[in-house]
Backbone:
């Protein structure tokens, strides 16, 4: 397999790395400078929130382009596709794309994205890193238990269980699978600790959102807290691609 020299390859990393600047300005700047209104409970406006997500999707595809001649191109492709589905889910949830049920459409889009994230992490762990599978299974089990407990405490308890509340359980376990696998990789190589933190932040964001949607959870700035955990979570997942490239010696 022909690989470009590392110095040439890594000099091109500047382009997606620079995208972190507009991403941070949109997400954190939107929070610091924005003001909630009756129509928009977020401090961040819709365009700053969605813009930050769109920037991450662009960054993911740039990382994929830089990984085409590397052993981790499959990982980068799955992460880019997963982030794109996350962006689509954001558009559903923000009612930019109109569907009969934005919550179900958003959950489906995010869920498919996490299926791709899981495939990416499994492929990287078993094919590239040669990780001990017992380590992955142990981490998975731990996060399934955490997600199930969080679902019961924040979503299920309270009012009578509805179909959507039950649907939130397998969805939460799916996101927990991403977190569990990411932690498993981090236990194998400390370079993937940011990835693990990102997957955990995504899981935390989803639990808060589910509790808000299905159990009327409310506290000051809840809508922004959801985005301030979700956005950095997605960023850390996307920016695990250069870590994978470095691990592969590119």
Residues:
């Amino acid at each position: 397999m022909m690989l470009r020299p590392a110095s040439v390859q890594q000099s091109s990393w500047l382009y997606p790395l620079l995208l972190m600047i507009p991403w941070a300005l949109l997400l954190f700047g939107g929070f610091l400078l924005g003001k909630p209104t009756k129509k928009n409970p977020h401090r961040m406006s819709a365009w700053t929130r969605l813009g930050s997500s769109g920037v991450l999707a662009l960054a993911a595809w740039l990382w994929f382009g830089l990984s085409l001649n590397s052993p981790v191109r499959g990982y980068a492709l799955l992460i880019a596709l997963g982030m794109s589905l996350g962006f689509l889910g954001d558009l559903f949830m923000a009612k930019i794309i109109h569907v009969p049920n934005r919550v179900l459409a958003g959950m489906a889009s995010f869920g498919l994205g996490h299926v791709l994230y899981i495939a990416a992490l499994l492929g990287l762990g078993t094919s590239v890193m040669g990780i001990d599978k017992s380590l992955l299974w142990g981490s998975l089990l731990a996060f399934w238990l955490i997600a199930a407990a969080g679902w019961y405490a924040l979503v299920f308890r309270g009012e009578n269980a509805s179909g959507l509340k039950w649907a939130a359980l397998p969805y939460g376990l799916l996101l927990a699978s991403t977190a569990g696998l990411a932690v498993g990789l981090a236990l194998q190589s400390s370079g993937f600790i940011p990835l693990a933190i990102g997957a955990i932040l995504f899981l935390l964001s989803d639990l808060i959102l589910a509790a808000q949607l299905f159990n009327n959870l409310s506290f000051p700035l809840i809508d922004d807290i959801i985005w301030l955990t979700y956005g950095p979570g997605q960023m850390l997942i996307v920016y695990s691609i250069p870590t994978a490239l470095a691990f592969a010696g590119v």
